[in-house]
Amino acid sequence: MRIKFLTMKGWVGAGVAGVALLGLVGWRWRAEAAAAEELKQEQGARRGGAATVEVARVETRPLLATVETVGTFESPFRARLSHRTAGRVDFIEVREGDQVSKGQVLVRIDPQEANAQVMQQRASVSESRARLAEAQSRLAATETEVEVQIRQEQAALTRAKADLEKVERNKDAEVATAESEVDAANAQLASAEAQKVNANAEVVAAEADFANALARHRRAVELAAKGYIADQEVENLALLVETRRANVDVKKGQRASAESAITAARARKLAAEKRVSITRQTVLTDQKLAQAAVSQAEAALAQAKANRSRTPAYRQNLRALEASVASADAELSQAAVRRADTELRSPIAGTVTERTIDPGSLATPGQALVVVESIEWLYVVASVPVESASQVSVGKDAQVRLDAFPNRIFQGKVDKVNRAADPQSRQVEVRIRLDNSTGDLRPGMFAKVSIVVGKTPGATVVPIEAIKRTSSGSTVMLVTDQDEVVERAVTTGASDRGGIEIVNGLKPGDRVVVLSYQPVKEGQKVKVAAERGKK
Predict the structure, then answer these.
(1) Among 66, 162, 360, 392, which is most exposed with the fewest C-beta within 10 angstroms?
(2) In this model, does residue 372 exceed pLDDT 50?
(3) Is 2's pLDDT higher than 50?
(4) How far apart are the first and last CA of the chain?
(5) Which one, of 446, 505, 499, 521, lies nearest residue 69 by Cα?
(6) Strand ranges inside 422-498, DSSP E
(7) Which residues neighbour 337 within 8 Å (Cβ) at sequence distance 6 or greater?
(8) Mean pLDDT over residues 246-275, rounded?
């Protein structure tokens, strides 16, 4: 083991370092002692010196009694816009914060399907109107045909009656001229035979018409079974078949009449040859024939009049077609409304505050796509306790403060007061209207509200912090002209955000302590560091 010994030079260095360390410790001790002594002297000086305070002057001003509350800004008109039909959005350009005008298109869904429905309904309307026009034309033609037939049969009846009257009027004269009628009877016989030929031709034509009508009716029945024509058309053709069958009967009757005329002519010829006795029989036959003609004409007229019964059926069909046109028009209107629903327009002028969809997305009925709010003026919705609600009424002034604008006070008026209180919170809702023409205020902002419920003009007012509440009452620390403190008992009244009314105990211009840096006592001198409200 090796042991190192300090040289003389090392011992000298170590001694110098120790002396320096001891000197530094001594200096630090003396400095701390001096500082403690100085602090002790300063505290003694403070205990015997004046307290530093801030004062405020007692002032005279109107005192506003207020109800304090908080609220939230709301838009008076908030529209949540949604489509009534589903579809894919192909147009939307507005974003949150955009200004929109009333009636402006905000969202549009693909209108192709709605346009197709409108065109389809227009075609349906045109088709219904065409069917109605055709039925109206057919009704007019049928009514005209029936009336013409009635007039014709009426004329035939008139002629038949005239013939009967003539026969009855001339029967005696015909007996007297029987002999002279032999030649006439021969000529009449030839004419009757010619009439029979014509009657046969008319019967053939009538039977052909009947066969044609019957064929058309059978074809119509087949088409109606396949749904190509309406049942009404089948019924119309059935009536036509009956008409043609009756016409055949008429023509056959006419043919029979022609044959009877031949028989009569022959009888007349025989009667003319057998002189007067046969003539009497011929006259009687003519009379019966005339009566038969009258009966036949009356029957034909009755048949013609019976054809009028077809008119109500035609009119009923006409009413049905008119109803079909009205229904088609209504469906067209509905399709037009559905097409209009593809465009979502703003019902108000305002600002877009919410957008929940983008182009290409599928919109469903009832889904809120865009929210538009009017912000030209806003409501502050607040609540006041029921015990204060009786003081708040429509038209009261209100002051609104916001943290976003700490140096501004917004003036408004109470616009609505709910007449019922919330059963849970026992609060009454109040709506305060504020102008927002500058656009600084926005829905959803938090606000502090002071509703002015009373006003005391010329009140003596001090800051609230000047009042000391004690068990014996309220006092203030009054600072005299000699800057001494005097404790003064006061009677307080109403208060507002800026101060409290002094009913008794102070006068305007007095100075009262509102802040002291250490406790002050009666008779103590003070040093006024600041005076509030002094210009």
Answers:
(1) 360
(2) yes
(3) no
(4) 89
(5) 446
(6) 427-435, 446-462, 468-470, 473-479, 485-496
(7) none
(8) 79
For residues 137-151, average pLDDT: 72
Residue found under tokens 């053939």? 204
C-alpha 117 chain-centroid distance: 22
For residue 445, what are its two tokens?
């902002």
Query: 67 pairs with which residues across the strands?
Result: 451
Measured CA to CA in angstroms, residue 459 lies from 56, 63, 350, 396, 508 at distances of 16, 6, 45, 21, 10
Pick from 531, 524, 528, 530: nearest CA to 49: 524
- Closest C-alpha among 382, 381, 386 to residue 423: 386
In the structure encoding, which two tokens stand for residue 138, read together? 């057919």
DSSP state of 226: T
CA distance 273 to 517: 169
pLDDT in tens, 172-219: 776 666 666 666 777 877 888 888 888 888 888 888 888 888 888 888
Tokens 């002279």, located at residue:
180
Give 238-280 as a DSSP string: HHHHHHHHHHHHHHHHHHHHHHHHHHHHHHHHHHHHSHHHHHH
From residue 436, how far is each of 11, 386, 415, 443 by CA, in Å?
Answer: 89, 29, 15, 11
Instruction: Report d(CA 522, CA 179) in Å as an integer.
Output: 174
CB 65 within 8 A of CB 456: yes
How far apart, in whole angstroms, are the C-alpha atoms of residue 388 and residue 405?
27
Please tell me the distance from the alpha carbon of residue 417 to that of residue 384, in angstroms, as a whole number.
Answer: 10
Is there a contact between 98 and 351 (Cβ–Cβ < 8 Å)?
Answer: yes
Asked if residue 258 lies in contact with residue 192, where contact means CB atoms within 8 angstroms, the answer is yes
Listed residue (239, 236, 247) closest to 209, CA to CA: 247
Count Cα neighbours of 231 within 13 Å in the Cβ-side half-sphere. Answer: 2
Burial tier of 304 (Cβ tally within 10 Å: 0-12, 13-18, 19+): buried
Residue 150: CB atoms within 10 A of its CB come to 19
Distance CA 264, CA 363 (A): 94
CA pair distance 372, 23, nearest whole angstrom: 82
SS3 (DSSP) at 141 = helix
Which of these, 434, 360, 370, 367, lies nearest to 397 by C-alpha position?
A: 434
- N residues, the chain: 535
Query: What are 309's two structure tokens?
Result: 């019964």
Burial environment of residue 54 by CB neighbours within 10 A (0 to 12, 13 to 18, 19 or more): middle
Name, of 100-104, 285-289, 412-416, the range with top average pLDDT: 412-416
| pLDDT score of 293 | 81
Neighbours of 272 (CB within 10 A): 22
Our CA angle for 150, 151, 154, nearest 5°, is 85
**β-pairing verdict for 526-532 and 51-57:** parallel
- Residue matched to tokens 């009379």: 287
Under a CB-based contact definition with an 8 Å cutoff, are residues 432 and 412 in contact?
A: yes
Backbone angles phi, psi at 439, to 5 degrees: 80, 15
Whole-number Å distance between alpha carbons of 313 and 157? 28
